[in-house]
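Changelog note: in this version the structure field was regenerated for every chain. One regenerated record is shown below for reference.
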Amino acid sequence: MNRIGMVAVLAVAWTALWRDASPGTVLGGLAVGAAVSVAAGDGGTPAWRPLLRPVATVRFVVAFLWNLTTASVAVAWDVVTPEERAREAIVLVPLRTGSDAIVTTVANAISLTPGTVTVDVERDPIGLYMHVMHFRDAEHARAQVRRLEELAIRAFGSRHEVAALDGETGDAR
């Protein structure tokens, strides 16, 4: 968004917040919008531009909903059969992405899924510490997260990251 658009949007928001479209309120909104725009600077070129690939996004959402459903059933089963206790563990999952947005997406998807929660994020190298309620083995847990990460990269990642995945998997989609 250019600077004029930013000022206009902020002026409209200011006017809406005051619930008054009088000339004084609109001018006040333009003044506040201009001040915020100057304070924010031009922002330069963002290091990460949000990309949205509709088909890949649907795949990510479907996979997330599938994980959510199966994990909900597993946790519910654990509750109704208290004699069979879950085996818990904390697993470090190294990630391939360098994008904070992808790391955040994957970490939140993990935490929103019953039976798993992101405990911490390792910065160098990038990885997630994840608590798993129904632990089978570390490689199984890592494979599930890495599959979710791959889907998130294909949905929201940069062209460079998608190309790196294609080179890694031999897939040339």
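Spot check on this record: The first strand starts at residue 89 and ends at 94. Helices lie at 3-18, 23-40, 54-80, 100-112, 138-156, 159-169.
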